[in-house]
Specification:
- The structure is a single chain.
- By secondary structure, the protein is mainly α.
- The chain has 5 helices and no strands.
- The radius of gyration is 51 Å and the shape is rod-shaped.
Length: 169
């Protein structure tokens, strides 16, 4: 900025805090255009070096330049503090996400063992139901055979009573 003519410095310096705080994108665009103009004006600035080399020391700055640098410094410090706060918030969120992911992994592994246990219980219950159905079928068969024998016994008793009654008469 020291190599640029004073007119361009003065035209850039009246950046009001309102303008810079309202549109940070315009500030970055202005910075880019200022850098481009610096690159373009570098030969012009070198030719105007005689204007700057008139006895002023490199360390001496005008009050306007000092004020402009202080304002820019304060703005940059504010931006850096905001970025630092945002980074801290993001770090906290990442740590929270990591913790929740660990809990989620633990719960998934726990569910896997629970699902295996449930599967084994279901298989056992299915086998028990099959065995119970077979036992019921066998009981029905046995019960039917028992009924046949009782019916046969009653019929035989009836015939024997009839035979004895006929034989007595």
């Amino acid at each position: 900025s020291r190599l640029e003519p004073e007119q361009s410095n003065v035209s850039k310096s009246p950046l009001s805090p309102e303008k810079s705080s309202q549109n940070p994108l315009d500030d970055s665009e202005e910075k880019l255009s200022a850098e481009e103009s610096k690159d373009r004006n570098l030969p012009d600035a070198q030719s105007n070096l005689g204007l700057w080399g008139d006895g002023k020391g490199e360390d001496e700055l005008s009050p306007e330049e000092i004020q402009m640098f202080e304002q820019e410094n304060q703005r940059l410090v504010g931006e850096m503090n905001n970025l630092f706060d945002e980074v801290r918030q993001i770090e906290g969120k990442v740590v929270e996400i990591s913790r929740l992911q660990e809990i989620f992994t633990e719960k998934v592994l726990q569910q896997e063992t629970d699902i295996d246990n449930i599967h084994q219980l279901v298989v056992g219950a299915t086998e028990n139901i099959k065995e119970g159905n077979e036992d019921i079928r066998e009981a029905i068969k046995n019960n039917a055979g028992f009924r046949v024998w009782i019916l046969f016994f009653l019929v035989m008793c009836s015939f024997s009573l009839l035979f004895l009654d006929w034989y007595d008469n």
